[in-house]
Amino acid sequence: MIRTLTLSCSVLAALAVTAAPAAAAPVRPGAAAYLAAHPGGTLVGANEISYAGGTFVVTIEPPEHTTAYADCPAGWFCFYDRPDFGYPRGKLSSCGWQSLAPYGWQDRVESAYYNLSRGAAQFFDYGTGLFTVGVGYRSIDYVGSAMNRSTDVYRYC
Q: What values do phi and psi take at 84, rounded to 5?
């Protein structure tokens, strides 16, 4: 009887542990600070903020496995706040003209990567073209004299 009761308690304890919801990852301080400085976004993870219904996504810190290479996911074009694809990273996929200001990315692009199957994205400083990434030239690890000058981007689809 005692052995059966002990086994039953062990089974119930195991079920309680497996049925309990997983704890959400704590929000990283950088993400909370970014959202406070650039309101209107939604935290979509401990390290990511989504704007405009997922149209624009900011990743504050790189995943632990990331080193100095462009880690732009397929289906997006990405721009980075540091040369050599250093974080934070912004990413877009929409076609047409887009201002970077509403997302806190005006005057802060230092490198970029294009990971879409067609088209190109041209970065502008108040209407003056600065640089382009696209299918023919996917990667710019340092935008040179255009550093921290991009105010808008136009994606040609």
A: 55, 35
Q: What is the pLDDT of residues 120-146, one digit of tens each?
A: 999 999 999 999 999 999 999 999 999
With DSSP H G I counted as helix, E B as strand and the rest as coil, what are the percentages for the chain, rounded to 5? 25, 35, 40
CATH number at residue 37: 2.60.20.10
pTM of the model: 0.81
Nearest to 79 by CA among 27, 5, 138, 36: 138
Rounded CA separation 76/95 (Å): 11
- What's the full length of the chain, in residues? 157
Specify the DSSP element, H or E, that contains 33: helix 29-37
Residue 50 within a domain: yes
Contact 61, 45 (CB under 8 A): no
**Domain total for the chain?**
1
Residue 32 clears pLDDT 50, i.e. is over it = yes
Dist. CA 131–CA 121, nearest whole Å: 9
Q: Which residue has the tokens 């990434």?
A: 133
Q: Is the pLDDT of residue 86 over 60?
A: yes
